[in-house]
Write a structure and sequence with these properties.
The complex is a heterodimer of chains A (about 110) and B (about 575). Chain A has about 110 residues and is α+β, with helices and mostly antiparallel strands. Chain A is about 20% helix and about 35% strand. Chain A has helices spanning about 15-25, 70-85; strands at about 5-10, 30-35, 45-50, 50-55, 60-70, 90-95. In chain A, strand 3 (about 45-50) and strand 4 form a beta hairpin. In chain A, helix 1 (about 15-25) runs antiparallel to helix 2 (about 70-85). The radius of gyration of chain A is 17 Å and the shape is elongated. The relative contact order of chain A is 0.31. Chain B has helices at about 1-10, 15-20, 45-70, 70-105, 110-120, 140-165, 170-200, 225-245, 255-275, 295-315, 335-355, 365-395, 400-410, 420-445, 455-470, 500-535, 540-545, 545-550; strands spanning about 220, 225. Chain B has a two-stranded antiparallel ribbon. Chain B is mainly α and about 575 residues long. Classes of the chains: A alpha+beta (about 110), B mainly alpha (about 575). The interface of A and B includes residues 47, 49, 51 and 52 of A.
């Protein structure tokens, strides 16, 4: 049974609803960081004193969950359900393989560490 | 020679490698563990470690001293250093005693002889008549002092406003230059600023009261103690000096800032201000209507705005600033919270700026009228640009509302004593639109003005000065201790109230003379600082890493990424 790393870049205001929904689905733990970036649109336009300026990096939140392969579908479906607004800037989910997981406190390895 | 220079250059530590936050912090403020791993670091030991290192250093210093003291030669060195320091202190003490003793006989020149005559006459047993001392009006003096404190508080407003419109990387520079401009202005105004501006001399410059020597007990006709007037006028000079920094945020070297500040506070402001406010200023004598500027739309704000414009032109835009006509846009401020609150603090301070210029608490009707006009102009100025800009982008812009009500306040500063409340609303409303035009004009001319100093202070100062010639009601004349002098010859009447063009012409002449001179001399000053000292603009690397790190060795927000 493999272990997968789900990395989701989402809108900052969706973080709290996502946490609530994931609680219902069940997950071992998560790591959250603030970040910024842009996609195909290459940024947005804002205005200051009547003139427009371009902002190339938009604040986002990155949520990283490392879960067993079984749970991936449920978690990814939850993320999409909570974070989708239909407008550009919703974000992306990246799923990669994890070579090893170790719990530092007890030195358990593999699925036991999740 | 080149080798020596190269050696010197290579020993100069590069700012980027030495002053980054976090490298030398003993305790990391971040919630996550510091990436600079310290062996043996635990939750408990972290706090202990910070405390113990300080004491260990001091112990080492004492040990080194005791070791050195055992050597005879080192002892001799120590005693001669000590002797030298004592000598220096003695000399300093001598200077502290000598300077006031030299000046002591010269303060209150017109009171001391009287007192001496009185004491000389009494023991002579001749019935000498002791004349009354000059009358100091207590409530008027208190009024001028309290309003001086309010105007001084505008410095806090300016610091907030300019810091909010700047980027995080230059915030400390903005704050410190505000403080330093204030300190320099106080000392220069004491030394010769007050003398040139308010002493009698000729129509262009004063020549009395250098270093506040031989000042009369009261200044002017309202019985206000001279030092209270000095303080009040210092606060005004400080305002002018701070306005100039607004357009020069983000790329001005600190030394260059010090130098041009001396130029503005010490030379430009007092001399040009004398023309309008000096006892024998030439603008008081033009016929048939004299130039009027109640609280300084021209003297404070136009001068400040013009020097700011000169500075912005000579400096050039900040690196990376592309203008709208070239496909770029403005650089937004980093903190609208302090910008907006700072602007409202300025509004609050303006309740000292305008009403205090009556210089008399007994002219209570005048004070109420001035305060009301001030308020209404700000209210109108805050709203008109908001609605004017909405159609452009369908957004309600906070920055333009801030600049708008400040522009309204600047504009009403000249005519506030002589217009009606409705006139004040019109003046403020037009000022708000003028600010938008000014911002667009600066953008079009490719002049980078981060806080809008010229549109708000320069352009609205011009509008406010002219508006007196249009909207003065003709009900009020010159302000005196107890009220307006409303005699027929002395009332101020504008064009729309049947006064003809005379007052308007006088206003245009006065504003053009002072504003034009300020701009030309400002340009000369900025070019002189730039080309003779090279300190006006910082280096490219310094500007990119930020003035805070480059000039001040730190960042304003160490726990966050600086932009």
């Amino acid at each position: 049974m493999g272990i997968k790393r789900i990395e989701a870049i989402i809108r900052p205001e969706r973080l709290e609803p996502l946490r609530v929904q994931l609680e219902a689905v069940g997950y071992p733990g998560m790591t959250v960081s603030e970040t910024e970036g842009h996609g195909k649109q290459r940024g947005v336009e804002n205005s200051f004193r009547g003139n427009i300026y371009k902002t190339y990096f938009i604040p986002k939140v990155k949520v990283v969950l490392t879960v067993s392969e079984k749970s991936v579908k449920a978690i990814v479906d939850t993320i999409i359900e909570v974070c989708k607004t239909g407008k550009p800037g919703d974000g992306k989910i990246f799923i990669t393989d994890v070579a090893e997981v170790i719990r530092i406190r007890t030195e358990e390895k593999g699925l036991d560490a999740l | 020679m080149a080798q020596v220079l190269h050696l010197y250059g290579s020993r100069k530590l590069h700012a980027a490698s030495i002053r980054r936050p976090g490298v030398y912090n003993v305790v990391s403020p971040a919630p996550f563990p510091s990436i600079h791993f310290q062996p043996g670091f635990t939750e408990e030991s972290g706090i202990k470690r910070a405390g113990s290192s300080g004491l260990a250093q001091e112990e080492a210093v004492v040990k080194r001293f005791i070791e050195k003291f055992k050597d005879k030669e080192q002892r001799g060195l120590f005693y001669s250093l000590l002797g030298g320091k004592m000598l220096g202190l003695l000399i300093l003490y001598g200077v502290i005693l000598a300077v006031p003793a030299y000046f002591n006989g010269h303060l209150h020149a017109d009171v001391t002889p009287t007192a001496q005559a009185a004491t000389a006459a009494a023991p002579a047993a001749a019935p000498a008549v002791v004349p009354d001392p000059p009358y100091v009006n207590p409530i008027n003096t208190m009024w001028v002092l309290v309003t001086a404190f309010l105007v001084f508080f505008m410095q806090a407003g300016f610091m907030f406003l300019e810091a909010g419109f700047a980027r995080t990387r230059e915030t400390i520079n903005v704050l410190l230059s505000g403080i330093v401009d204030t300190c320099l202005c106080g000392l220069l105004f004491y030394a010769w600023g007050f003398a040139w501006m308010f002493g009698s001399g000729n129509g262009f410059i004063g020549n009395q009261y250098y270093f506040l020597q031989n000042i009369p007990l009261t200044y002017g006709s309202c019985g206000v103690a001279t030092l209270a007037v000095f303080l009040f006028q210092f606060a005004f000079a400080d305002t002018c000096s701070t306005v100039t920094t607004g357009a020069m945020v983000g790329r001005t070297g600190f030394v260059g800032d010090l130098i041009y500040s001396v130029g503005v506070s010490g030379f430009i402001y007092p001399i040009l201000g004398h023309w309008a406010w000096g006892p024998d200023g030439w603008l008081n004598n033009i016929q048939p209507a004299a130039f009027h500027d109640f609280a300084g739309s021209t003297v404070v704000h136009t001068i400040g705005g013009m020097v700011a414009l000169a500075g912005a032109i000579v400096l050039g835009p900040r690196l990376g600033r592309k203008f709208v006509r070239d496909g770029g846009g403005p650089m937004p401020g980093h903190d609208m919270t302090i910008a907006a609150v700072g602007a409202v603090i300025l509004w609050f301070g303006w309740y000292g700026f305008n009403p205090g210029s009556t210089l008399s608490a007994m002219d209570f009707i005048g004070i109420a009228r001035v305060a009301t006009n001030t308020t209404l102009a700000a209210c109108a100025g805050g709203l008109t640009p908001l609605f004017y800009l909405y159609p452009r982008l369908k957004k309600w812009d906070c920055g333009i509302s801030i600049n708008g009500f400040l522009g309204g306040l600047v504009a009403i500063t000249c005519p506030c004593y002589w217009v009606s409340p409705l006139g004040a609303i019109i003046i403020g409303a037009v000022a708000g639109i003028v600010v938008v035009w000014g911002v667009d004009l600066m953008e079009h001319l490719r002049i980078d003005d981060p806080v809008g100093a010229w549109p708000v202070h320069g352009l609205c100062g011009i509008w406010g000065t002219w508006s007196l010639g249009l909207l003065a009601t003709g009900e009020f004349g010159a302000s005196t201790t107890t009220g307006a002098d409303n005699s027929a010859g002395s009332v101020v009447t504008g064009l729309f109230y049947g006064g003809g063009w005379h007052q308007f012409e006088a206003q245009v002449i006065g504003n053009a003379a002072i504003g034009g001179a300020a701009f030309i001399v400002g340009l000369l000053l900025m070019y002189a600082v730039h080309y003779l000292t090279g300190t006006l603009r910082v280096s490219k690397e310094g500007e990119m890493e930020g003035l805070d790190l480059h000039e001040h060795g730190g960042v304003a927000y160490p726990e966050m990424v600086t932009r």
